[in-house]
Amino acid sequence: MMRRRISPGDLPPRDPAAMPDRPTCRTHGLLGLALLLAGSVPVAVHGQQPRWQVDLNGSRIQYDTLAALNAPSLAASLEWQRSTLLARLGGSFTGFEDNGQSVQGRGDLVGWFSPAGAASPLRLEVSGGVGGSRHSSGFQSHIAQADLRLHLQGRRGGGWIGSGAATARNSFDEAAVTSFTPNLGGWVQLGPTRLIGRYVDTRVEGERFPEVSASAVYSRGPVDLTAFAGYRDSPFEEVDSDGWAGASAAFWLQSNIAVLVSGGRYAPDVIQGLPGGEFISLGVRFSPRRQRPVAPTEPLPLLFTRESARSGGLVFRVPDAGTVEVAGDWNGWQPQPLSRAADGGWRLPAELEPGVYRFNLRVDGAEWVVPEGFPTVDDGFGGQVGILVISES
Amino acid sequence: MRRPVLLAVFGVLLGVVTPGAAQESALQDRVPADVLATVRPLLEGARRDSLPVGALESKVLEGVAKGVDAARIGAAVRTLAQELRTARVLLRTALPEAPLADGEVSSAALAIRQGVAGERLVTLWEHRPPSGSLEIPLAVTGELARRGIDPDAAVDLMGHILETGTPLGRAAQIPNRLDLHLPGAGAPQAALLEALRSLGIPDPPGRGPPGGPPVG
After folding, report:
1. Does an H or E element contain A250, and which?
2. d(C-alpha A128, C-alpha A86), whole Å
3. CB spacing of B197 vs A379 below 8 angstroms
4. How far, rounded to the nearest angstrom, does the alpha carbon of residue A117 sit from its chain's CA centroid?
5. Could you tell me if A290 and A258 are in contact, meaning their C-beta atoms sit under 8 angstroms apart?
6. Using an 8 Å Cβ cutoff, are A281 and A322 in contact?
7. Distance (Å, rounded) from C-alpha B112 to C-alpha B132?
8. Smallest Cβ distance to B65: which of A289, A301, A333?
9. Model confidence pLDDT, tens digit, residues A2-43
10. Fewest Cβ atoms closer than 10 Å to its Cβ: which of A10, A300, A371, B25?
11. Closest CA to A311 of A347, A335, A345, A280
12. Do B214 and A292 touch (CB under 8 A)?
């Protein structure tokens, strides 16, 4: 039988002087959302050093079944990686305006390997996790799940197909609920933005809840942005078809502290039988070092290939320049005018043999500069000279 | 031996010049007389020591293009010549039989200036591609050291890249990727690992795990 949604009358009796009972799903939502966002981006843990993170948040949440409430929370996570094994521990503590509290915890273990060799783009990922929550009213929920996915992973895009299984129970229902989640998805990286799309065909006790969702992650300068949206169809009247969407932003004040802003709507949990809700949150994140959710792309490469140089692919970025000339080892340091390209850059119409060249640009006939994106060395005359590398391939 | 002498005289009369004289002729066309007078002895000494004279002449032309006076051009050329001489002596002493291209000597000199020990640089010749040059790998090694990567680790990394046959085009992007990861990573070595992973380059042995979990 499909687990029903929790309603206020299902909760254990409380002190009449207290505010009406609240379900414990609120922190499920916050933590679940946090885990969703964290799980939707790659984790690059440095060597074998653990990485931790602590978030302090103040939120206002409107559950589907209840009035809005205020909920400050403290969430912490710890990750460490050894070879191709990643371990995560996360937990949160939430206080409610009715003096109730809720704690949640989760542990995950993720392993991956290359079934066709390290140079292959194929990756097989195996993961498992256990989690639980407890409210001061006595309500508890637990879940254990495992996933297996096969990834095709390139430098700018990829996809996966796989399936998961989970078993969950809560204190309202003695019988555990088992689910299967066949899923597939793909991702593409466009500059500092990564787009991910997913399809999950959640099957709970013989019923299907097909779901599509998408997320976008952007990281540039001190800002990390995430947006998400999705829709799930439901065959049951008591479990609505539902859509959700939201966004979050982290503004890094320093490399180890950020301001967090988030808001939106999160989906109900059909496995644990928890309602969805709408939220807005403001907080602070502490971490020993920032970890970008998306690896940034370079503005210009150090290296050009012989073919790109020949085909006019050598373009320099020089903002606000009227004229630009280039002089370097390949032209005997005789300033050569550059032509402006359609994209506003300055194009070098030269064929360069593979090698390492020193060069400068002269802007508006006066100043010698090194354009953006090129390494520099002391020129021996009190200034800087740029390094240009042309390779065979 | 009269015939070779006659041929040499005949060649001079026809305008055939030796390589050194040809190069000086090119400089004469572009370099002021006072600059030429300052650098001529330096260039002649460099030729005698089999140094990359082209790099020195390029430095002269750079100074002229930038409007630098003769004394400063001379000082810069003298400094560069000494760096090239040091690099060449070190490499030749360690590798008496190995061919040394001018570009390799120049890049080695730059890497040494950027903090890489010459004795460690020599180890890269063990991985030198049969028909390739180490000019670019040496330049990348120096750039990594300049960005705060432990110089010995930079050499080890480049050796690992050459040994595994990683495309040089990808390896040469490491310094730029390092620049992008440094602000968020905190430590140069941590940023280097992120840079390597973003380029799909396997970590060197013992230097950390091979990337994070797949995206999704």
Report:
1. strand A242-254
2. 11
3. no
4. 27
5. yes
6. no
7. 21
8. A333
9. 333 333 333 332 222 222 233 333 333 443 444 333 333 333
10. B25
11. A347
12. no
